[in-house]
Amino acid sequence: MLKLSLPIILASKSPRRHELLKLMGLDFSVELKDVDESFPTELSPAEIAVYIAEKKAWAFEGNPDAIVITADTIVAINGEILGKPADHAEAKSMLSKLSGSTHDVFTGVSINYNGKISSFYDRTAVSCRTINEEEIEYYINNFQPFDKAGSYGIQDWFGLTVVEKLTGSYTNVMGLPTEKLYQHLLKIS
Questions:
Q1: pLDDT for res 178
Q2: I need a surface site. Which of 70, 93, 99, 115 has the fewest CB within 10 A?
Q3: Which residues pair with 113 in a beta bridge?
Q4: E strand spans, 67-173
């Protein structure tokens, strides 16, 4: 069992990340800071996820009395980055691109501890069956995927009925690769 000497701050409003840390048996508080999530265009998808996670972690610079965990998840397909959709039309466009194809989900994680930031990422390949426009409309209207990278949640209707195969971490697709996070936290416990 993991025993940490300092409190944990999760710098995320994601209910999925909250749920995953609770399932890991960790006590934590949530603290948010506004961070510009722009990134240099020449970065690879993995580098983008880590870059944004690190920007979030640096916002907590000078907080030596806690372990701060930040994360950022992106979806990449055919070289295109799919973030969170701005509206219904963008969600529909993203889901149409994912239909009948395999895409990658990258989550960058940063741990701000004792004045240093340690970062890592995980990658999961996700294969989807072909879905029609009626299914896409049903999903958007009933599950409101506007707070999710790539416009879908692996833990909801889309993941249960559309995703055919995962290669890699399921929790990474949810937004926090808990297996890797646990190993990094063990190093500082």
A1: 98
A2: 115
A3: 116
A4: 67-77, 80-82, 102-113, 116-128, 163-167
Consecutive sets of 10 residues in the chain, 189 residues long: mean pLDDT of each?
A: 84 95 95 94 96 95 86 96 95 98 98 93 98 98 94 96 98 97 92
The pLDDT of residue 61? 82
- Residue from 179, 159, 161, 160 nearest 169 by CA: 179
Q: Active site residue: 34, 36, 65, 72, which one?
A: 72
Contact status, residue 84 vs residue 91, Cβ threshold 8 Å: no
Give phi and psi for 40, each to the nearest 5. -65, 135
In three-state secondary structure terms, 150 is: helix
Indicate the helix (H) or strand (E) that contains 162.
none
* Bridge partners of residue 103, in order along the sequence: 126
Do residues 154 and 173 lie in contact, with contact meaning Cβ atoms separated by under 8 Å?
Answer: yes
Cβ proximity of 42 and 35 under 8 Å:
no
Q: For residues 74 and 37, give the distance between their C-alpha atoms in angstroms, rounded to a whole number.
A: 12
Is 72 in the active site? Answer: yes
